[in-house]
Amino acid sequence: MITVAALLLIVLISATFVRAGALALAYTGLSKEVANFQALSAFLGVGFTTSESERITTHPVRRRIVRTLMVLGYFGLGSGLVSVITVVMQAQAGEGAMKLLITVTGAAAILALFGGKVFDPVIQRGVRKAMGKRTGRLIHDYAELLRVDKGYSISNVHVVTGGWLEGRSLRQLRLTDEGVLVLSIARAGGVTLATPGPDTVLAAGDTLLAYGLEEDLVDLASRGAGEAGESAHAAATRVHHGRTTIEESEDERAHCAPPESAPDA
Fold first, then answer.
1. Residue 174: exposed, middle, or buried by beta-carbon count in 10 A (0-12, 13-18, 19+)?
2. Number of structural domains found in the chain
3. Structure-model confidence comparison of residues 116 and 40, the more confident one
4. Does residue 216 surpass a pLDDT of 60?
5. Residues 16, 124: one domain?
6. CA-CA distance, 196 to 137, in Å (whole number)?
7. Which segments of the chain are extended strands (E)?
8. Residues 6 or more apart from 120 whose CB is under 8 A from it?
9. Which end of the chain is more exposed for a tag (fewer CB within 10 A), N or C?
10. Do both 18 and 69 map to the same domain?
11. Mean pLDDT throughout 84-91?
């Protein structure tokens, strides 16, 4: 039973490391789905796709997290493999059928608990503390900062041939009037403009990394050229103006509201 207990302990520790790594990567701005995949990939020592590996290796904090998971995975998988071989050999010899059953059931239970995020509150506290010590500041959840729960998101908008975006500068397009912010532009030739200026002209094949309401970004990507496109731009501008007017009105009321009077003693 010592071998079984050791194997289950390795599974528990490994699952904890992977979950902690995923949460840490999420704090650096990766989506939860990508963070989970990257943490598991790093721990198991499997490869990344080219685009995702660049997102890891060019970010110093993410690089440290992934490097730590790789080292931990090297030792954890090695120890786990030795324990698994021992248990299986005992089962084949007729000495450990019950041990094998206990091992499989216990490992499945541990993975189910971590899959259900039962231990997330405890792990999150440790990750927040560790991230604060390593970086000197707490890295916030970008999903919360960017209000994705309110319909906002960062999405790719492709510039199509004959579309409203093609052949025009950001100044001419006036996308901010619609509430759309262009964060970067990936040219079809492979060059990326990290901070595009107002005079940057868009070409077919370019991909904009844009921030705004999801429905606005979808409409922008499919907007046709000519009068129809200008009409859609004008309509989107009016909608955005009305939305910001409401937000500013609510903000003004919140800041101008008189403080609640203290109750009489």
1. middle
2. 2
3. 40
4. yes
5. yes
6. 28
7. 152-158, 181-186, 192-193, 207-213
8. 19, 23
9. C
10. yes
11. 58
For residue 217, give its domain range: 146-256
Q: Considering the entire predicted model, what is its pTM?
A: 0.48
Q: Maximum distance among all alpha carbons in the chain?
A: 82
Residue finishing a domain among 67, 102, 135: 135
Question: Distance (Å, rounded) from C-alpha 190 to C-alpha 201?
Answer: 16
Please list, residue by residue across 225-240, b when 16 or more beta carbons sit within 10 angstroms of its beta carbon and e when fewer do. beeebeebbeebbeeb
Amino acid residing at 246: I
In the chain, % helix, strand, coil (3-state, to 5) comes to 65, 10, 25
- Residues 237-252, mean pLDDT to the nearest whole number: 88
Angle 70-112-4 (CA atoms, 0-180°, nearest 5)? 70
First vs last C-alpha separation in the chain: 68
What single letter denotes the amino acid at residue 226? G
Interval 172-215: pLDDT, tens: 999 999 999 999 999 988 899 988 999 999 999 999 999 888 78
Q: Which amino acid is at 113?
A: L
Q: Residue type at 162?
A: G
* Closest to 168 (Cα-Cα) out of 198, 213, 205: 198
Residue 140 belongs to some domain of the structure = no
Contact (CB, 8 A) for 191 and 165? no
* Residues 255, 120: Cα–Cα separation, whole Å: 36
pLDDT of residue 248 exceeding 80, the answer is yes
| Cβ atoms of residues 137 and 42 within 8 Å | no
